[in-house]
Design a protein that fits this description.
Shape: globular
Distance between the termini: 57 Å
Helix content: under 10%
Radius of gyration: 22 Å
Number of strands: 20
Oligomer: single chain
Strand content: over 45%
Mean pLDDT: 88
Low-confidence stretches: 1-23, 308-314
Length: about 325
């Protein structure tokens, strides 16, 4: 199906609550966009237009713009305080006119009187109530309960934590049924490198849906990913395929991904053009499909960053 402009607007509306609500209050940084250095703005050219990402001097995402045309675009604003997110606002513009009915605001209120409690209200700009999330934390500041409240239902997700010497796990239960589990473990290989393994399992109505195991180095580079699917009885996960990652000699940038599924092997090769010695790529070509992505990156002046760092230290 071809995504029309109308479909893209609806997609943004229905996906938005889950980027903050439902699972976690996540703050996005330049690292989530494969960017390093004093990045101020990154513009990515896409098939439907372009995406613009703006970062503050701490590297946090504070604004993004999705442009379909010069007259049709969406702006998302983020507001923070003391490393907490307080607001996320999505504003849609059609034919150059602000569309109040499809624009959405996430307003968060943080109460630290006892254990931290966060209330997130999701409203349209026309004041229509959509959802409310209640986040409850324990004495160690771990998220333990998420309540979703709207005009039709109340859902409760509980999070349980298990920790051993080399492993920790989070298990999410939606109304008593397992929804997701994330298990993280560490070991040291023969080269004395610290290796991290994260196994994420997802469930639907308590039954296996999909799973992914990511093995990476301490610097964040992925060694390989294993994918799992439900077996014929939908009672357990079985191995599906493996992706092995290789990198360019002097860059933390993917050179090739080798996909192995049964006896079939496929190689996906990445070629990059870099912006001098800044460490970020500005053009990426993927073969054998011969698709490409280009991006333009703007940086904060070095003296601006240095002055701010000195102020903070003082």
């Amino acid at each position: 199906m071809t995504l029309t402009k109308h479909h893209l607007y609806l997609l943004a509306i229905f996906l938005l609550p889950f980027s903050i609500g439902a699972q976690e209050l996540r703050i996005f940084t330049k690292a989530d966009f494969n960017l390093v250095g004093n990045v101020k703005k990154s513009t990515v050219i896409t098939k439907y237009g372009k995406e613009e990402f703006y970062f503050n001097k701490d590297g946090k995402l504070n604004k993004s713009i999705t442009r379909y045309t010069d007259q049709d675009y969406s702006i998302t604003y983020y507001r923070y305080k003391n490393n907490e997110i307080l607001e996320k606002r999505l504003e849609n513009y059609r034919d150059g006119v602000f569309d109040k009915s499809t624009s959405i605001a996430h307003i968060l209120k943080i109460d630290t009187t006892n254990n931290k409690h966060i209330t997130e209200k999701i409203l349209t700009y026309s004041k229509k109530f959509l959802d409310q999330y209640e986040y409850e934390f324990d004495a160690d500041d771990k998220l333990i309960v998420i309540k979703r409240i709207n005009n039709e239902e109340v859902d409760e997700t509980t999070i349980k934590y298990t920790t051993t010497d080399n492993e920790k796990e989070q298990a999410f239960y939606l109304n008593g049924k397992i929804l997701k589990s994330v298990r993280e473990s560490y070991k040291t290989n023969t080269k004395n490198e610290k290796i991290k393994t994260v196994l994420t399992k997802q469930f639907l109505d308590g039954k296996p849906l999909k799973a992914e195991e990511v093995v990476s180095k301490e610097n964040g580079t992925i060694i390989y990913k294993d994918y799992f699917v439900p077996d014929a009885t939908e009672s357990k996960f079985v191995f599906d395929k493996k992706e092995t990652y290789t990198y360019k000699p002097e860059e933390l940038v993917i050179d090739k991904i080798t996909v192995t599924k049964g006896k079939t092997t496929k190689e996906i090769t990445y070629m990059h053009q870099f912006d001098g010695d800044k460490g970020n790529w500005i053009k990426q070509v993927i073969s054998p499909d011969n698709t490409y992505t280009t991006r333009k990156i703007e940086y904060y002046p070095e003296e601006e960053i240095s002055t701010e760092e000195k102020t903070v230290k003082q």
